[in-house]
Amino acid sequence: MIHLLIFFISLVGGFSTDTLTKPAPQPIVVLELFTSQGCSSCPPADKLLQEITQQATQSGQAVYGLSFHVDYWNRLGWNDQFSAKAYTDRQRQYDRLLKSQTYTPQLVINGSQDVIGGQRGRIEQAIQAIQKQPASSFVNVEASLKKQAGQVTVSYNLSNTGPYRVNVALVQKEARTAVKNGENGGRTLVNTNVVRQFKTLDNPAQSGTTTLTIPSDLPTDQAAVLVYIQRTDTQQIVGAKRL
């Protein structure tokens, strides 16, 4: 009887510890690619983003890619249907911070450094350096979503408060486009994790919700959401959750 009681106490104690312990923050990498279907230098970068993120997923690494299509190429022969001025503005905000010129394909890594989008070696080196950073540099993000009536509502909870903003990107996992004009005229381009809707919450509470509209031409099985946390003082990305 005593042995049975000891076993029961240890079992309950172990269960309580597991259920109350929250997962520790882990190093995450967010790759923001500023690209355009009108740019002949962009397809190799688009492909590389796809390869890096797919390999990371297969190996269980927290490396997430986003394709922001800028609009300043549209006047040169091809109107990129995924482009938006808001994405161009986001790129230029980074360029002011990083003291960089505005160009495509530009890859911004965790909001703190930029490289040419096709430079595999430099990108992989940067990813490996971030993954070696201490867990204390990151924030654990819990999130969930609910889809209804052409909208997606995202709920989030952060492990701690700070000088943060919450970014929520609704993406199309893959898009294939037959480009008829411009520098890529006659080619069929493949883009990965194309940002279709984007919202930033400044000065957010530790937990909250936000709603994004699902574009009518975005198939449900192609939709995904990335919630990522960015410091307001340094713009460094310190947490992310893919849904």
Care to describe what's here?
The chain has one domain: Immunoglobulins (Immunoglobulin-like, Sandwich), CATH 2.60.40.10. Helices cover 26% and strands 37% of the residues. It contains four helices and eleven strands; from the N terminus they run αβαβαββαβββββββ. The strands form three sheets. The protein has a four-stranded mixed beta sheet, sandwiched between helices. Strands 8-7-10-11 form a four-stranded antiparallel beta sheet, covered by helices on one side. The longest helix is centred in the first third of the chain and has 19 residues. The N terminus is likely disordered.
Sequence-ordered SSE layout with sheet pairings:
Blueprint: H1 2-20, E1 29-35, H2 42-58, E2 63-69, H3 85-98, E3 106-109, E4 113-116, H4 120-131, E5 141-148, E6 151-158, E7 164-178, E8 188-202, E9 207-213, E10 223-231, E11 237-242
Parallel strand pairs: 1-2
Antiparallel strand pairs: 1-3, 3-4, 5-6, 6-9, 7-8, 7-10, 10-11
Concise account of the structure shown:
The chain is α+β, with helices and mostly antiparallel strands and 243 residues long. It contains 4 helices and 11 strands; from the N terminus they run αβαβαββαβββββββ.
For this entry, give a set of tags.
alpha+beta; single chain; 4-stranded antiparallel β-sheet; Immunoglobulin-like; 11 strands
